[in-house]
Amino acid sequence: MLYLTADKFPVFVPFGVIGFYRYLWFLIRVAASVAYRPVPLPINPTYIAAEDVTIIVPTIDAGEEFKQAARSWLVGKPKEIIIITEEKMKGPLQELAEAVDPSRIRVLTVPFANKRLQMVHGIRNTTTDIICFADDDAIWPPKMLPYLLAPFEDQKVGGVGTSQRVQPVGDTMTVWEVLAAFRLTIRNIEISASTHIDGGVPCLSGRTAAYRTIILKDPEFIHGFTNDLWLNKYHLNSGDDKFLTRWMVSHGWSTYIQCCYDSELLSTMKPNWRFLLQVLRWTRNTWRSDLRSLFMERHVWTSHPYCAYTMVDKLFNPLTLLLGPVLVTILCVKAAKGDYHLPVWKIILSYMAWLTLTRTLKLVPHLWKRPQDIIHVPAFIAFGYYFAIMKMYALFTLHEVGWGTRAGIGDATQALNALNAQNAAPQAGEKPYDPEAANYASQQRR
């Protein structure tokens, strides 16, 4: 960050060309977010949850929190919930399903734990028009499903996402959970702004997102989704939501984010230092996906130019963020040598005051609801610089494709072969998905 300071100005103001650009960019996002409106619920909906929605939940270690999440999904009356897990976990998950609603929850298994293959197995066993993927701890508000379905009234829309906020694991939020909540507040502003400006979004978060089944049933999609390689060498398992979002863009489908109270899900985050491992995994996925979108696939430039610009901005964000303390350090060295008119303590104090003010302003939407979290603003500032360094580290370690916080992930190739064999013949009671019949049924309900 450059700075503007007159020779005899008694206070250091760490603001200049780069600073002006960063805060102007932020104000544009805020203005667009304020102007954004979610798609309202239709009077005569084409899609009805009880007939047209299957919720797919890939998991390997769902616990008691699953019961609360599942009951929140069932409020919307989906036709079915399909849980896909590895074979050794079927018993415990079957017990959880039976404790909630055995008539509408089915438990299926794959030979090995692999999220993308679990998702594909769920897709192959779906017979409804709309598939909704959900994390096993995602808690929905009562009107979530109607709001997820509303944008699908536009037949060009292929995928719909939501806004999010943090559900604490314990009675109170840890500092790690507050940091996650701060990040989600900023993300909600970004995705609503991007949706309002050009309809694009970098990612339909996998915590909860809905898609047209006809897109996901396409053999081309299934092959690409389960054979996603980085540098034609490293088999990707995480980053499934990034892949799905890019597929929508590259195949001409629109996306939409329903960002409002009635479609804002609650989700738990790691309440300890393992949150940093989550962030590292997400950061690597973002690097891989954004680089592909911008420089390999390139569809986003013409379909969603504003979204493309936000991706470019994020590429350089770590450098601009770290430039501030570098220039302040240089100035402090000059001041220590007597080559600058302000003492070192004034420079540092002014810089810290500026950081606190500007970072707090960015968090006003969160602090309005939880003013007690203002004590964690210094931690958020420190985390910002840590994240900038982590982001540079992630860039040089994109070949590391492990989950990081999830044990027991099986070999992708081995799991794919076993799953293909398992799906070679229809399972007992399985009905093939007929897109023409499904489309006719939905049209009849118009």
Description:
The protein contains 18 helices and 10 strands. Strands 1, 2, 3, 4, 5, 6, 9 and 10 form an 8-stranded mixed β-sheet that branches. Strands 7-8 form a two-stranded antiparallel ribbon. Strand 2, helix 4 and strand 3 form a beta-alpha-beta unit. Helix 10 packs parallel to helix 11 and helix 13 crosses helix 16. It starts with 16 loop residues before the first helix and ends with a helix.
Overall CATH class:
Alpha Beta
How many distinct folded domains? 1
Write the H/E string, N to C.
HHEHEHEHEHEHEHHEEHEEHHHHHHHH
Q: Portion of residues in helices?
A: 40-55%
| Number of β-strand runs | 10
CATH homologous superfamily assignment: Spore Coat Polysaccharide Biosynthesis Protein SpsA, Chain A
Q: Spans of 5+ residues with little confidence (pLDDT < 50)?
A: 425-431, 440-446
Q: Taking Cα atoms only, what radius of gyration do you get, to the nearest Å? A: 24 Å
Secondary-structure-derived class: alpha/beta
Strand content: 5-15%
Provide mean pLDDT, rounded: 88
**Distance N terminus to C terminus?**
55 Å
Q: Could you say what the CATH architecture is?
A: Alpha-Beta Complex
Treating each run of at least 4 consecutive H or I residues as one helix, how many helices? 18
The name CATH uses for the topology is Spore Coat Polysaccharide Biosynthesis Protein SpsA, Chain A
Cα shape: globular
Task: Report the sheet with the most strands, covering strand number, pairing sense and barrel closure.
Answer: 8 strands, mixed
Subcellular location: Membrane
GO molecular function: glycosyltransferase activity
Protein name: Glycosyltransferase family 2 protein
GO cellular component, one term: membrane
